[in-house]
Amino acid sequence: MPDLLQVTGVSKQYVSVKAVDNLSFSVKQGEIFALLGPNGAGKSSLVRMLVGFTYPDSGTIAVNIDGQAYQSIPHQSLGYLPEDRGLYAEKTVQQNLLYFAKLRGVEKNAALAQIESWLTQFDLSDRAHERLKSLSKGNQQKVQLISAVLHKPKVVLLDEPFSGLDPINQEKVVVFLEALKAQGMTVILSAHQMAMVEKLADRMLLMNHGQAVLYGTLAEIKQDVGVGIDITVSFSEATNYAALNLGNYKVACTQLSQSKIKFELSDSSELNLLLADLSKSTTLQGIETKTMDLHQLYLKVIESHQGKVQSQEHAHVS
Ligand SMILES: Nc1ncnc2c1ncn2[C@@H]1O[C@H](COP(=O)(O)OP(=O)(O)OP(=O)(O)O)[C@@H](O)[C@H]1O
Known about the structure:
- By secondary structure, the chain is α/β, with parallel strands linked by helices.
- The protein is built from nine helices and 14 strands.
- It has a six-stranded mixed beta sheet, with helices on both faces. It has a four-stranded antiparallel beta sheet with strand order 2-1-4-5, covered by helices on one side. Strands 12-13-11-14 form a four-stranded antiparallel beta sheet, covered by helices on one side.
- The site of adenosine-5'-triphosphate (ATP) has 12 residues, from α1.
């Protein structure tokens, strides 16, 4: 798929903070792309530039929609869930949604059909005629999500769509976002819920202090970080790891029982090779594997980047 968005060397400085620092990445047409990073990493500052509310101090943003070039995502092609939510508390759910649909030029009957369908998906169809303020925060959030997509935009940009939602509703948002992708929309979201991102995102950018720390598919990111894998193997007869020929591998072994060994392999891509080697001289009865998930990977990488930034700052001051 061609790139819909290309960010090249973008920086944004507020008075005393470099919110975005020489950032480069691209988003492909039709993918779900996640922006990750700790509080203050610069995600919202980046999003504000992507939608043209603010401009980079340096670097470029190039957007390509249907062969047309733009410097930010054009309003007519954008469905946006901003950081600060804004609906009309005194109006009903349906009045709110009809209002947003009208603002974006959607004909009333088409809007009503879409509203009905999305409200049903979010278990809110019986609340359509209640005032927004009578809904819980999470349910208001779902109405706000619907309001962002009624005009079937090309690009949907969601600032923390999972915030304030319980696990069941987070899953519903995953299904909602997958449905948008199936309709051909490109979805860019910022999020702190790694389990949701792991399920959903085709590619991701992990930011810290305005910089790109990791970028790519989950598999590419795991390879970059050199994520290892833990394998517990049960053998059909007593097997001691000291007798195995493992000189070619970066592996730590723990004898769990006479016939059970845990292998901590530094490079997960060597898994199949190791198992093939083991089965040459022994009979494998059972294999359990455990790899680092995105949450653990995030903690590991952000901690190490934080350390690097602090030592650079220290070197700068002294
Ligand atoms: N309008 C502003 N004026 C001054 N500083 C700002 C402004 N907006 C953001 N910042 C600063 O820029 C940095 C990045 O903030 P930003 O809101 O982009 O981070 P974020 O990754 O979206 O964080 P969060 O996950 O908490 O929403 C922070 O240090 C923040 O204090």
